[in-house]
Amino acid sequence: MSQYHDVYNSWMNDPEGFWGKAGQDIDWIKPADKVFDAKAGVYGRWFVGAKCNTCYNCLDRHVEAGRGDQAAIIYDSPITGAKRTFTYNQLLDEVSTFAAGMESLGIGKGDRVIIYMPMVAQAAIAMLACARIGAVHSVVFGGFAPRELATRIDDARPKLIISASCGIEPGRVIAYKPLLDEAIEIAAHKPANCIVLQRDEVQAELHVGRDFAWDGIMESAREAGKKADCVPVAATDPLYILYTSGTTGEPKGVVRDNGGHMVALNWTMHAVYGIESGEVFWAASDVGWVVGHSYIVYAPLLKGCTTILFEGKPVGTPDAGVFWRVISEHKVAALFTAPTAFRAIKKEDPEGKLLKDYDISCMRTLFLAGERADPDTIQWAERHLQVPVIDHWWQTETAWAIAGNPVGLGALPVKYGSPTVPMPGYKIDVLDDEGNKLPAGELGAICVKLPLPPACLPTLWQNDQRFRDSYLAEFPGYYETADAGYVDEDGYLFIMARTDDIINVAGHRLSTGGMEEVLAEHPDVAECAVVGIADKLKGQVPVGFIVLNAGVERDAAEIEKECVQLVRERIGAVASLRIVMNAIRLPKTRSGKILRGTIAKIADGEQWKMPATIDDPAILDEITDVMQARGLV
Ligand code: COA
Ligand code: AMP
Predict the structure, then answer these.
(1) 575 CA to middle of ligand 1, Å?
(2) In principle, which of 6, 143, 171, 306 could form an S-S bond with 71, CB 3.0–4.6 Å?
(3) Strands (DSSP E) along 78-221, which ranges?
(4) What would the mean pLDDT of 142-170 be, rounded to a whole number?
């Protein structure tokens, strides 16, 4: 019997009692005056008055409790062939030494530090070192281009940027330093210093006086015998800012606090993932995404687990058996990844033949999130791995599952296509356009009743107004998730689509509006639309439609190529915009809104209805012809 309903009801009856009790598993320097203060912040704040340190809770307290010799991070990099284990003792030594190095550059509490790094252990060390001294980190995914990095530099205004000489993708080495230099050149704000990890594959050129080598910073701190102590911060102080795609090209700076974040994430390790201290947890994601923040770095370490930092891909590094190799070699108890990773493995090894080479009996559960988990992929994984496959739904904004199937509380029966039920902390209502609650089975906007639980964003970085406008204004009293879906008679949630312009490409959250802004910069483009269309491997991929300026006589194919290149340069390879098509006109409503949803439905071969407000129905035929000519439909 699952305890889920009892636990959920106990939270409903006494939310403060519930989170206050969960907070007892965290070591506080000073306990909270109030578990929740409804008058503080935009919608209230958690653990008000408490003092704490996140790094202390991730490292020092485990060492003090006798876990010093246990592996904390296992760095496994099939792309370079490197492997290295850091025990809790060793990780504490690295983190406190690096934190002292940052202090020697004048970094302290409240200063922002951007981390632009590949999947190396030093990325996690840098994050924890910031947490140790109360600096606010902002990790920027390595696949983003200089301009995206520059936007984040200008918003976060970091004193320091920590980077590496290169990232390594299958078949190519990407020198990061030129990208970083270009971003600093573009940005209006200039960081005082950079620390660069020199990797064997590329030696970065360092600007004298501004840039320092990671190893040099560490050596100086060691020679001086310096290690940084944990700096007490308020539970409500920011731990990090993580930028995520918003409805316009400007990314949103999601703020995470220290206290509530620790309480909620620590609570999830047992309740949601069924994982206990000392076990090995592997989130195959990237530290640049929220999954990496929450489940590569913070939650497993808060719980005293061993976490895996994997620098590789599910296929091609060297083959589709690498996940099974990592699970068996490091005794992984639970794996968390995006469905796209499993679709990639399934495509390469449909029969799961490579599994026969490995003993993965240590693995109890597979967790999927980041995009819709299609039943085909879930069933393939169930069949081959012989473990429960659990879909769960959340967002950068929340840091942990809004809905899931809580393994530690006793899993509920699985319904394919549903991430199961709301977690304690989240009261979900499905609303119509007027904000009325919809009955079971009816599709609407999925909203969370305020207040949001601990760890969810209290605001956007220095922008309470944008936070209110983006998430709270449409449905008063609620947080709008921007996902549409429904709840069935059994209380199971079904997530159907985004209500904004966000698409999910290989588990990466991207804004089509942001790509449109880039295409519109091309001098020959008069108008454009980017839509997400279904893709067997990546879930969705962006496709661009452009209308050329009158009088342009250049070869359209050439312009299309330039557009693809422009998006790669401006946003990054990760945008995956591969097809841009030249159209004569774009279908619009009479008020001038481009009918992106209808274009996507035509491309996906789905049933579609002629929108009543369409300006000129003939344009849909023209667009269909364009797509047909390119083999898209
Ligand atoms: N730095 C630089 N470039 C990067 C990058 C990084 N950290 N991550 C991806 N890219 C590049 C890729 O090399 C690729 O470039 P290309 O167009 O020149 O080939 C491009 O961005 C698109 O990457 P991606 O969408 O990841 O596609 P892929 O074909 O390289 O790999 C998968 C497909 C399914 C194997 C891959 O997406 C994957 O492993 N997904 C796992 C899911 C995941 O980690 N999700 C994160 C949220 S949980
Ligand atoms: P991100 O902020 O990058 O984690 O992306 C969050 C978005 O990804 C959500 O708003 C959903 O649109 C989508 N998403 C995440 N997990 C799931 C899931 N399990 N099922 C369906 N969609 C999901």
Answers:
(1) 9
(2) 306
(3) 82-87, 112-116, 136-139, 160-164, 166-169, 172-175, 193-197, 211-213
(4) 97
Q: End of a domain among 411, 445, 464?
A: 411
**Are 269 and 188 within one domain?**
no
pLDDT digits (tens, 9 = 90+) for 547-604: 999 999 999 999 999 999 999 999 999 999 989 999 999 999 998 889 999 999 999 9
Write down the pLDDT at residue 248.
66
Residue bearing the CA closest to ligand 2, atom 4: 395
Q: Is ligand 1 within 6 A of the CB of residue 370?
A: yes
Do 317 and 188 lie in a common domain? Answer: no
- Ligand 2 neighbour 395 (Cβ under 6 A): yes
The answer on 611 and 520 residing in a single domain is: yes
Residue 196: pLDDT over 90: yes
d(CA 205, CA 203): 7
Q: What is the mean pLDDT of residues 509-523?
A: 94
Whether 372 is covered by a domain: the verdict is: yes
The ligand that comes nearest to the alpha carbon of residue 340 is 1
Whether the pLDDT of residue 249 is over 70: the answer is no
* Residues 560 and 603 both lie in one domain: yes
- Residue 66 in any domain: the answer is no
Is residue 417 in a domain?
no
Cβ of 396 less than 6 Å from ligand 1 = no
Pocket lining: 167 vs ligand 1, CB cutoff 6 Å? yes
Q: What is the CATH number of the domain that holds 444?
A: 2.30.38.10
Whether 252 lines ligand 2, by a CB cut-off of 6 Å, is no
Helix (H) or strand (E) holding 50: none
Query: Degrees (nearest 5) of the Cα angle 422, 282, 402?
Result: 10
* Domain harbouring 104, CATH code: 3.40.50.980
Mean pLDDT computed over 612-626 = 93
81 in a structural domain: no
- Does 623 share its domain with 507? yes
Q: How big is the CA angle at 185 (ends 209 and 170), to the nearest 5 degrees?
A: 95
Give me the long-range contacts of 549-555 (CB less than 8 A, separation at least 24). 549/523, 549/524, 549/525, 550/526, 552/524, 554/524
| pLDDT band for position 246 (cuts 50, 70, 90) | confident
Domain that holds residue 590: 500-629
Q: Which of 360, 364, 362, 369 is nearest to 341 (CA)?
A: 369
**In this structure, which amino acid lies at residue 132?**
R
Mutate to test the pocket of ligand 1, among 342, 508, 569 (most ligand atoms within 8 A of CB): 508
Quick one: 248 and 277 in the same domain?
no
Give yes or no: residues 101 and 231 share one domain. Answer: yes
Count of residues in the chain: 633
The pLDDT tens digits for 4-48 are 999 999 999 999 999 999 999 999 999 999 999 999 999 999 999
- 503 Cβ below 6 A of ligand 2: no
The domain total for the chain is 5
Question: What is the residue type of 576?
Answer: S
Whose alpha carbon is nearest atom 23 of ligand 1? Answer: 574
- Condensed to tens digits (0 to 9), the pLDDT of residues 230-240 reads 999 999 999 99
Assign residue 605 the CATH number of its domain: 3.30.300.30
